[in-house]
Amino acid sequence: MELKIQNGDYVPGSSGAMERLEGSAELVQRVLYKLTARRAGFPFLPELGSELHLLGRTAAGERASAAELAVRQALSDETELEITGVTLTDAGSGLYTLQVALAWRGQTLEIALTIQ
Asked: Is the distance from CB of 36 to CB of 21 less than 8 angstroms?
């Protein structure tokens, strides 16, 4: 079980203790965290995070494959998770919409986020 994070803060439950997530909600939060954290941004966990923040430096024709590589690298330690699709769409103004399709324990999960 992991503690629930919303807008960068832990979420208190009704009893005053921090709210916890289980199952696919826990997995989705962990995946979002790994995709949005900058790889090598934590000195004692250098392999945590992704390099998605570097997409703006990548040639336009190579961004989709670079995004897929970054997603696969960031989630490589999730042994029960299968990445079934990665789609990167230019949202304009230097922003991109990333959609990641996942298979986990017989469930299909979709993750979408906006990145720079």
From this structure: no
pLDDT in tens, 18-70: 888 788 989 999 999 999 999 988 889 999 999 999 998 999 999 999 999 99
Q: What is the pLDDT of residue 1?
A: 67
pLDDT attached to residue 102: 97
Return the structure tokens found at 4: 């629930």
Which of 58, 37, 32 is closest to 47 using CA atoms?
A: 37
Q: What percentage of the chain carries pLDDT values higher than 90? A: 69
Between CA 34 and CA 24 the distance in angstroms is: 15
What DSSP string describes the chain? -EE-EETTEEPB-TTSSBPEE-HHHHHHHHHHHHHHSBTT-STT-TTSSBSGGGGGGS-GGGHHHHHHHHHHHHTTT-TTEEEEEEEEEEEETTEEEEEEEEEETTEEEEEEEEE-
Strand partners, 6: 9
